[in-house]
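For the sake of transparency, this paper describes our internal protein records without simplification. Because each token names a local backbone shape, the row as a whole describes the fold. One such record is reproduced below, unchanged from the form in which we store it:
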Amino acid sequence: MAAPKKGRRAPANQGHPGRTLILVLIAMAALVGGMFYSGTLTPRLGIDLAGGTSFTLAAQNQPGKPNAINETNMNTAAGIMERRVNGLGVSESEVQTQGSNHIIVNIPKGTDAKQARQQVGTTAQLAFRPVLTTAAGAKTPEPKPSPSASGKAGEKATGGKGSQQSAAPTPSAGPTTKGRAVTDALKKPSAPPSASASDKPSAQQTPPAPGGADVPPALQKQFAALDCSTKAGRAQAGEQAAGAKPTDPVVACKDDGAQKYVLGPVGVEGTDVKDAKAVFDSQQGQGWIVQMDFTSDGGKKFADVTGKLAAKAPPQNQFAIVLDGAVVSDPRVSERLNGGNATISGGFTQQSAEDLGNMLSYGALPLSFKIDDETTVTAALGGEQLHAGLIAGAIGLALVVVYLVAYYRGLALVALASLGVSAILTYTIMTLLGPAIGFALNLPAVCGAIVAIGITADSFIVYFERIRDEIREGRTLRPAVERGWPRARRTILVSDFVSFLAAAVLFTVTVGKVQGFAFTLGLTTLLDVVVVFLFTKPLMTLLARRKFFAEGHPWSGLDPKRLGARPPLRRRRTAPTQTKEA
């Protein structure tokens, strides 16, 4: 039985070019719509093009550390500041040391100067300290001798553990108080029972030293005199707490001044925090929170500290999270926490949560700094260079267009349309990356975008020449478009991979403005692949069906005569042999 005849094989799988072009147009419309929706219609410019603000920070001497200001600590501080304000390396903020004790920070226009000032000036020294005692933030009245007190001032009226609550001030509400709280696996305590008259501190009671807490008399006196309701009192307490040794107890204020504390030695240091990030908690309704992950050693320390605190009575079952000498949270602990992470929650906006997570992730500054000077930087010189660069780019683009029209004629329309799509995608993405990751366009980045014009045009030329080669072999346009694509595709991918690899290496090993050039070069190289695969090839497939291109019009750029095409090779049919009958 004879096998059925196979149908004629198509030259290649042409797919659905119309659908692909529609998807590209939808993506472009979405990006342009997102740009208008965000209200940002122009890319964010770097400090060399738009000006900005310059801060001069002076390093301060550390208590008990006379030799803290040195080259190593200054370079470390500059590196941490640079990571804080520069994020992914494309916001174009500049940080550099000057002299032996100054750091210069340049922030481009459009960046919140107040936020940047906080980012670079905050030391971000984090510590977890157990709470020994706490009271309202106002100054404690001087104690009066009680007739029933038989001991010195500062001693309890009645000794023993049973009397510890009567000598203690009312404990703070922990995670339910105003401000921020750490809630990682911390069970929110039920409302404390209302204190009886004997539980409340009175003017006749001694300065707080509850639960037999070992608080030195000098620290008790300092605690009683501390007034956290004033800005000066909070600043003084913060400086003293930040400069104290980790093994010493300290007095500290809540960041909002509502509470004051006597805190024990540091249980877990900020260096034990491996990562911190801002997260929106919609499940428990806590809003914006900061999640912290500890190192392995930090997780063990945190578990040990919480295990000891869980066995104590309020307020000594609380631990304070101290940031730069101020208490940002004082949660209670009801059980040992072995998870190796914690969550700071309560009172955060998105920006404040991201700022705190950023500072904790990149580490504490080894020195404290004071802003000596703040000036505005103009962009006169950068504006002139940008104008000259744009003129050079326009001239280069015009020369490319003239070459394409003169050499490729009708195919130049495909190249120009592809260049237009690439320009729209590049502009909208750069504009949207400004508010998204802080990307700022500087002069080197503009140079990278201009270089990309040549990279994109080179991809079109490779594909056009492959099509022409197929036509020279005697094939018609539609098979030539499909057969030339696999060969051109390999060449384009290899070329773009080399460009992208160079951009990635340059971005990794350099700093400052050169990263802007590398980032733009890498971005436009990726867009070149997207445009050639999803726009140029489908468009060429559709045009190959048009009479103007398919029949090789002299102005199409695909005229077989002009290309010197050979006549198509045809197989000669062999006439069937006839046998003569005898």
